[in-house]
Amino acid sequence: MEELTIERLIGKDNITITLTEDELEKAYRIKEKRYLDEDFANALADAAQDPNTRFHTGHLEEFPELTDWLCVCFEDFYDANISHNDLVELTLNHLRHASLKPEFFISFSKATAAVCMGTEKNVDECEQNCGHYHRCSNIAEANGRSRRWETLASLLSMHRSGSCTCNEDGTECPAAKYLAGTWDISGFFHSEDRKEAA
């Protein structure tokens, strides 16, 4: 088993830290994700003027589930014969297409971590362990962002089926604005905060 021993002089004490192979792998994955996150942030900043880009750099920090989705997608696409930058571009291109479907936001609602019984859990895990029909009360209270993802998926479904509010009063529904790239989802997530403040 491979180990890494690090020696540091802290004050007057000589400290030795030994990392196991599993710990090294975990540390590597954390750093790899940070580098990838930075690459995605830079690529999104470069594409900020593209009308097909519905996500921007700030969304990566605001919505950790988006970064997780991009990293998983990158890993799925990984091919040693494709350059790193081309893989980043391929992943962001897939994001542009996948984010037009309600299923994309449903997957986010399930991937959003929430605190249940004092422990951060995956929504699916909580539903299974709590044995409730939809979601236990703890996660329902703590996981407002998950509900907002579900609402966004519903808005897209309603727009696609023609049962949205478009053309009723001469305005477009939020889903139509999102699909057209004229509506920032950050506003959707903070609209309830603004209502409470008013």
Please give a structural write-up.
The protein has 198 residues and is mainly α. The protein is built from 10 helices and 4 strands, in the order E-E-H-H-H-H-H-E-E-H-H-H-H-H. A hairpin with a 2-residue loop joins strand 1 (4-10) and strand 2. Helix 1 (21-46) crosses helix 3 and helix 3 packs across helix 4. The protein is elongated, with a radius of gyration of 21 Å.
**Uncertain stretches of 5 or more adjacent residues:** 131-135, 193-198
Q: Helix- and strand-based class?
A: mainly alpha
SSE arrangement, N to C: EEHHHHHEEHHHHH
Give the total of beta strands.
Answer: 4
- The overall average pLDDT, rounded, is 77
In which order are the strands of the major sheet placed? 1-2
* Computed CA radius of gyration, to the nearest angstrom: 21 Å
Bin the strand percentage. 5-15%
Q: Sheet with the most strands?
A: 2 strands, antiparallel
Total helix count?
10
The end-to-end span amounts to: 60 Å
Tell me roughly what share of residues is in helical segments: 55-70%
Outline type: elongated
Brief characterization of the structure:
The chain has helices at residues 21-46, 57-62, 64-77, 84-98, 102-111, 123-130, 137-142, 144-161, 174-180, 185-197, and strands at residues 4-10, 13-19, 114-116, 119-121. The protein is mainly α.
Task: Annotate the secondary structure layout.
Blueprint: E1 4-10, E2 13-19, H1 21-46, H2 57-62, H3 64-77, H4 84-98, H5 102-111, E3 114-116, E4 119-121, H6 123-130, H7 137-142, H8 144-161, H9 174-180, H10 185-197
Antiparallel strand pairs: 1-2, 3-4
Helix pairs in contact: 1-3, 1-4, 3-4, 5-8
